[in-house]
Specification:
By secondary structure, the chain is of the alpha/beta class. The chain has a single domain (2-291), classed as 3-Layer(aba) Sandwich (Rossmann fold). 38% of the residues lie in helices and 19% in strands. The chain has 10 helices and 15 strands. It has a 7-stranded parallel beta sheet, with helices on both faces. A two-stranded parallel sheet has the order 6-15. The longest helix has 24 residues, at 74-97. Bound molecules: NADP nicotinamide-adenine-dinucleotide phosphate.
C-alpha cells in the first residue's frame, strides 16, 4: 500500500509512519521542511511534486499548527485554521488531478468538535456547542468530506488527548507531578477524554482496511475520566507531596481563551462508532495506559 501522509513528522504521525513501515507500506510525507528520504519514505515539500499518474492508495491528513502552542491571538487563530484547511484543500486538488483516485482519506479532527460540555456522554451524533475549536473542527471536517466527490471513503478522526510516554500532552501535564506537586485546573470536575497513542495508530490501521467504515469516529478510550481522577491516577505514578489546584481564572490570565476550551472545560466522549465497527482498545483504562 502507498500512503500519503501530512503531519507525518509530528507526535501522532511519526508513530503512524513507523507502524506503516513495519507493515511494508511505502510512504510519502508532505512536510514544510525538506528531509532526506529514508528506506520506504519519500519526503516532499510541495504537493505538486506528486505526478498525476502516481498511485496513492490512502491519504492520512494530520497536519496543523499546535492548538496548545501559543495564545490564541487573532493571527494565531488564522494560522490554526489555515494550516489545516489549506493542507486539506491541497489534498483535494491532488485527488482531482490523480488519474487513479485513492481509496480512502483518514483526516484529523478533535473532540473539540463538540465544544465545552458537562457530564453528558458524547457519541458521534452529539450536538456541538459553539466555540472556536468546534468551528475549526467543523470546517476541517467539511473540507475533508469534500473528497468524497472523487470517490474516496472519508473517515474523520475526532481525536481525544493523545498520551504517550514521550511528547504530547502528558509530558506537560506530568511535569509538576515529577517535582512532587499534583494539580488539576479549575474545579477538576471537567471530563478529560484521553487515548493512548498506540490505540490511535491501531485505529488508523483498522480504518485503513475497514472497507465499510466512513464518517466521524471518536478516537478516545472508552473510559474517560474527570480532571480530578486523572490527577489521582498521576499521583499514584509519581511521589507527590502536595496537591495545588490551579484556579481557572489564573490559567485564563496566563494562556487566555485557550484555557476556557482546552483546560477548564472538557468533554466526556465515547468511541461508539469505532466500537460498533469492532475495534478493540489495547488500553481502555487510564491506569494501564499510564503504566505503559
Ligand atoms: N496530540 C493530540 O493530543 C491531539 C488531540 C486532538 C487532535 N490532534 C490533531 O491531530 C493532528 C496531529 O497531532 P500531533 O499531536 O501529531 O501534532 P504535532 O506533533 O504538532 O504535528 C503536527 C504536524 O503538522 C505540521 N504543521 C505544524 N504546523 C503547521 C503549519 N503551520 N502549517 C502546516 N503544517 C503544520 C507539522 O509537520 P511539518 O513540520 O513536517 O510540516 C507537524 O509535524 C493535529 O492536527 C492536531 O490538532 C492532536
Amino acid at each position: 500500500m502507498h500512503i500519503l501522509i501530512t503531519g507525518g513528522t509530528g507526535f501522532i504521525g511519526s508513530a503512524a509512519v513507523a507502524s506503516f513501515l513495519e507493515q511494508g507500506y511505502s510512504i510519502t510525507i508532505l512536510s514544510r521542511t525538506a528531509h532526506p528520504d529514508q528506506v520506504g519514505v519519500r519526503f516532499i515539500t510541495d504537493i505538486d511534486a506528486i505526478d498525476s499518474d502516481t498511485v496513492i492508495d490512502a491519504i492520512v491528513n494530520l497536519a496543523g499548527a499546535s492548538m496548545a502552542g501559543k495564545r490564541w491571538s487573532v493571527a494565531y487563530k488564522k494560522e490554526l485554521l489555515a494550516s489545516r484547511l489549506d493542507t486539506t484543500r491541497a489534498l483535494a486538488s491532488l485527488c482531482e488531478r490523480l488519474s487513479t483516485k485513492p481509496g480512502v482519506l483518514l483526516s484529523g479532527s478533535a473532540i473539540g468538535f463538540y465544544g465545552p460540555h458537562k457530564d453528558e456522554r458524547l457519541e458521534e451524533s452529539a450536538a456541538a456547542i459553539d466555540s472556536f475549536s468546534s468551528e475549526l473542527c467543523r470546517l476541517w471536517e467539511d473540507e475533508a468530506s469534500q473528497m468524497q466527490r472523487y470517490g474516496l471513503r472519508v473517515c474523520l478522526l475526532r481525536l481525544g488527548v493523545v498520551l504517550a510516554n514521550k511528547g504530547g500532552a502528558l509530558e506537560q501535564m506530568a511535569q509538576p507531578f515529577k517535582f512532587g506537586v499534583a494539580n488539576w485546573i479549575g474545579t477538576g470536575q471537567q471530563w478529560l477524554s484521553w487515548v493512548h497513542r498506540d490505540d490511535v495508530v491501531a485505529a488508523l490501521n483498522f480504518l485503513l482496511l475497514q472497507q465499510r467504515a466512513s464518517g466521524a469516529f471518536n478516537v478516545t478510550a472508552p473510559n474517560p475520566v474527570t480532571a480530578r481522577d486523572f490527577c489521582a491516577a498521576l499521583k499514584r505514578r509519581y511521589r507527590t507531596f502536595i496537591t495545588v489546584p490551579l484556579p481557572g481564572f489564573f490559567m485564563r490570565l496566563v494562556v487566555g481563551e485557550m484555557a476556557d476550551e482546552l483546560l477548564i472545560a472538557g468533554q466526556r466522549v465515547i468511541p461508539a462508532a469505532l466500537q460498533q465497527a469492532g475495534f478493540e482498545f489495547e488500553y481502555p483504562k487510564l491506569a494501564d495506559a499510564l503504566a505503559a
